[in-house]
Amino acid sequence: MDKRPRGTKPAVSQAAQQPSPTAPRRDRRPSMFEKESYAQILRERLRDSVHDVQYVEPPFDDSIADIGKEWKSALAKLKFSNSYRMEPMKKFQAHSVEIKIQQILTETLKDVKYDDKAFSHLSLELADQILLAVKEFGFHRYKFIIKVLFIQKTGQAINIASRWIWDVAWDSWVQAKHETETYVALALVFALYCE
Q1: What is the pLDDT of residues 37-82, one digit of tens each?
Q2: Is residue 110 within 8 Å of residue 136, measured between CB atoms?
Q3: SS3 state at 121
Q4: pTM as predicted
């Protein structure tokens, strides 16, 4: 071990100051704005998950320089001027929505038997179908909450309750039911007006 006086810095050799040309150079981290690296970054992020990336279509075309501008404009929040509207232009019409939901339930579930594993996926599909159908009515400034329940018939009784704090004048809800020998499907749609 070298002995040196206290308070002095150790001498650094010239070889240690300059990186040797044979030493491996550390690769830089790939940028998500490079076309080749985008899929690689997604694969690295999803490495420990159960998902597998088969193909990634990049969110940009040939020009890499314009990507920042495109992303900034896509992420920018839209600002609207105040309309000072305290009531909806078109009030939620529960009866017409209930008829449409009942049609969706009967068409989708007419030949379906009870299967708890299939119903978890089917409830999500039904909720998406119902949401799209309700949005087609054009109730502006309404937010919708859709709840689809499948209940197996085994001779039990069931009570379903929901609590909400809402405006009685503009907010509403609708239910539709489809019943077979083995199960009951219940769809609930809550329409909440947002000023």
Answers
A1: 666 666 666 565 544 445 445 554 555 555 555 555 555 565 666 7
A2: no
A3: helix
A4: 0.58
